[in-house]
Amino acid sequence: MNTILSNSSLKVSIKHAGAELFSIKDYQNNEYIWEGNPAFWGKHSPVLFPIVGTLKNNTYTINNKEYQLPRHGFARDMEFELINKTDSSATFSLQSNSETLQKYPFEFELQLLYSLAEKELTIGYKVINKGADKIPFSIGAHPAIALPAAFERYSFKFEKDEVLKYNLLENDLISNKTEVLETTANLVPLKYQLFENDALVFKTLESDSLTILENSKPYVRVNFEDFPSLGIWTKEQAPFVCIEPWFGYSDTAENSGDLFQKEGIVILEANQTFHSKFSIQIF
Predict the structure, then answer these.
(1) Cα gap 7→189, rounded to integer Å
(2) Which pLDDT tens digit goes with each residue over 259-282?
(3) Which of 222, 131, 231, 150 is nearest to 190 (CA)?
(4) Could you give the CA distance from residue 186 to residue 42 in angstroms, rounded to a whole number?
(5) pLDDT at 186 over 90
(6) Residue 114 · residue 14 · CB < 8 Å
(7) 20 to 30 A Cα–Cα from 98, which one of 49, 129, 142, 155?
(8) Helix or strand (DSSP H, E) at 216
């Protein structure tokens, strides 16, 4: 099933499977979200929960018991329930159940709140701890922005003039190796060579937004002021780029496996609720 939101500027489509955004169109029929062609990447904007990235050996421990989780967790592969809907907003819910408890031994509710205003779609996350114990989790977004023109016509403009230091991935894990994303007049021209070693992982940024420019004109802006970390990713010759606000990221090779000790993890107290949001703004 799909849910459609609309206003006078945009039409947005969301799958109930994974509560995944798969289309943002304007009324000139321009599409701003990647179509999901599996020849490159078969997703559009998956929800990353209860981990972001890859665990060492895809394994973690809670109270010395081992559990398995795939890359980016399980929420993106589960059916969400639509619990609220207006013309321009929708709320989806995923509740812990016997299937999730085998992989992740915590009682939770994950809500995604989509809200459309003018030419901006806001995506809110709510994690509710429904148990008596603390919950460790990461959460993140993975929207793939469609790039209809040649890749080299696009560039990034970060909100602030800063040193753009990122960590390199090795075997899907965060390494201690860092590089600096070079800028020219505060711009980063896009080229596929930037992604030869997979995603660029910024553990911290001063900027709260990143604008994609097409031929030097604003095209799409992703606002992520609530999120401490950011991933940027594409595949060779793919006509999209993913701008990924995150709480948390992959394990390091030295990681102990204890999820409560994982770098970047969020710890949510019993009966408490976590909130965050980001937005995609169309020009």
Answers:
(1) 33
(2) 999 999 999 999 999 999 999 999
(3) 150
(4) 32
(5) no
(6) yes
(7) 142
(8) none
